[in-house]
Sequence to fold (121 residues):
Amino acid sequence: MAWIYLLIASLFEIAWTFSLKLMSVKKLKAIQWRSFFGQISNWAVLAPFAGYVLFGIGNIVFFSMAMKEIPASTALAVWMGTALIGVKLVELFLFKGTFDVYQFVYMSLILIGIVGLKRNP
Fold:
């Protein structure tokens, strides 16, 4: 079950990363709170911040649950590796990021390391 918690934590980390990318502190500061509910655009500004908070908390909760059964060094390496690959894939498919052969090679090495860490207790 700990490995599933670690995967969930990685998914929360990926979502947290993109909520951070989409969040604008400048726009958050500019919200007119007295007329907040009157303008739909305020919700679009607040949504990434809400995601930042919720995904960050979910990430911490599931990562800490995973570390109760998985050694910290292994958990950290697998969590960070899967999050890195996930961020790259989301960037590639949703945000039309770039990709080249070298990135494929290096991401494959990360995956090999993750599988190797999963195989050893």
